Amino acid sequence: MSLAAAPDVTVRPMRESDWPDVQRIYSEGIATGQATFEVEAPDWARFDGARLASHRLVADAPDVGILGWAAVSAVSGRPVYSGVVEHSIYIAEAARGRRIGSVLLRSLIASTEQDGIWTIQASVFPENEQSLRLHLAHGFRVVGRREKIARMGHGPAAGQWRDTVLIERRTQVL
Questions:
Q1: What is the pLDDT of residues 39-90, one digit of tens each?
Q2: Is 1 within the bounds of a domain?
Q3: Which of 29, 42, 57, 83 could form a disulfide with 118 if both were Cys (CB 3.0 to 4.6 A apart)?
């Protein structure tokens, strides 16, 4: 993937045919050791079953391909929490720092608000300052820090306890 300049990006619904690129980008995020506790990207069936189909987006650029993705999962099966989701956003290594995250996050916020979702939340490693800055710039707030919430399962930090910062964005629409 060559990105000499910031490409024109279209955000569109994720398709199953996007999975090889989405999975590669997910794996790139995992390899940083700063994106997730996951050890490896899931297969399509597991990914598809865990995320809401109506809020899975990709940033696609002509002649370049998929530059990033965002998706949400329900936080609970209880009806009272039907408007609360947890999200993930991943940007291809070659596209980082090119505002692809902002484009995707704005689109995800619009998508969820249109569907009546009132809270988007996520847990971010405190060391992932770029992700925290991105989210704070788009109306998320820090709810708190969860100390030693889980152990890393991969990379140089395997077995180490990690903190996460719980962030959320409440809609202003409802």
A1: 999 999 999 999 999 999 999 998 899 999 999 999 999 999 999 999 999 9
A2: no
A3: 83
The 10 Å Cβ neighbour count of residue 70 is 26
Residue 48, classified by CB atoms within 10 Å of its CB into exposed (0-12), middle (13-18) or buried (19+), is middle
CATH number of the domain at 29, please: 3.40.630.30
Q: Which two three-digit tokens encode residue 56? A: 């899975």
User: How many domains are contained in the chain?
Assistant: 1
| CA–CA distance, 87 with 91 (Å, rounded to integer) | 14
Residue 26 to residues 31, 67, 68, 104, 110, Cα–Cα distance (Å): 9, 11, 9, 15, 23
From 83, 63, 82, 70, select the one nearest 13 (Cα to Cα): 70
CA 146 to centroid of chain Cα atoms: 19
Tell me whether residue 142 is in a domain: yes
Task: Report the alpha-carbon distance of residue 85 to residue 89 in Å, rounded.
Answer: 13
pLDDT score at 5: 47
pTM of the full structure: 0.92
Q: How far apart are CA 142 and CA 123, in angstroms?
A: 10
The sign of the torsion formed by the CA atoms of 73, 34, 146, 167 equals: negative
| Residue 126: domain span | 10-170
Compute the residue count for the chain: 174
Interior/surface letters 121-130, b for 16+ CB within 10 angstroms, e for the rest: bbbbbeebee
